[in-house]
Amino acid sequence: MSSQRENERKTYALFRVWDVFVLLLVLGLVAAALFMILLPSRGRTAEVFLDGEKVMTLRLDKDAVILLEHLTLHVEDGELWVEDADCPDKICEKTGRISKKGQNIVCLPNRVVIKIAGKGEVEAIT
Fold it and tell me: What number of CA atoms fall less than 13 Å from residue 11's CA on the CB side?
């Protein structure tokens, strides 16, 4: 009788270990899927708007320096940033480098908006 109880205990303990293993595996897969879905990917192009009208589309895979009327755009290694602007607050320069879909740089005094093309991050999950 005691050997039967020992077998039941071993089976019960083994079952609990496998339950925890399967649960951790499922949670890990769900976390990885959410991470891949919600993480914005790198964009391939950027759109430049002046006074609300699109004036150009830039490829981010080619390094370039673009001189606009009021600012200089720099594209390097898939990233874009404003290198020099003649606006007084320089917020567009302080924005730094952008590369992910949905990111943007705005220069209000010069009415320039630069957006990485594509859908960006999820704003809300309902």
Answer: 6
